[in-house]
Amino acid sequence: MLNINDIQKIIPHRPPMLLVDRIDELVPGVRAVGRKCVTMNEPFFVGHFPEKAVMPGVIILEALAQTGAVTMLSLEENTGKIMYFGGIDKVKFKRQVVPGDVLRLEVEIIKNKGSFGVGNAIAYVDDQVAVQAVLTFAIE
Hints:
By secondary structure, the chain is an alpha+beta fold. It has one domain (4-139): Hotdog Thioesterase (Thiol Ester Dehydrase, Chain A, Roll). The chain has helices at 4-10, 57-73, and strands at residues 22-27, 31-37, 83-93, 102-113, 116-125, 128-139. A hairpin with a 3-residue loop joins strand 1 (22-27) and strand 2 (31-37).
């Protein structure tokens, strides 16, 4: 398990854009399972939406991407590098995410060719799929 301090040693994100609180499982370059504890203190809830707080889908995708970044950047050859989005495909939003939810962020790398790759990503709340997508990334 990686705590927040360990995560910050691997990826360059910092609050308020650091969206992974903990990594529960990690096989470098292969798979990671992370957690994001969603609280009302998240800055995006101020405007999304004032009357009914819902976590923006793109923020959930970013949390998944950061989980994938931990997977790839934990490889020794990628230490100190940055992982960027190269594409987002087959996105499905299946459930709203609200304050009090705990997102389980699962990313499995299905292609890795040097500085480019692809990962299957699924975000769950309890055992319900909230978001699923195929993420393409570039490492620089």
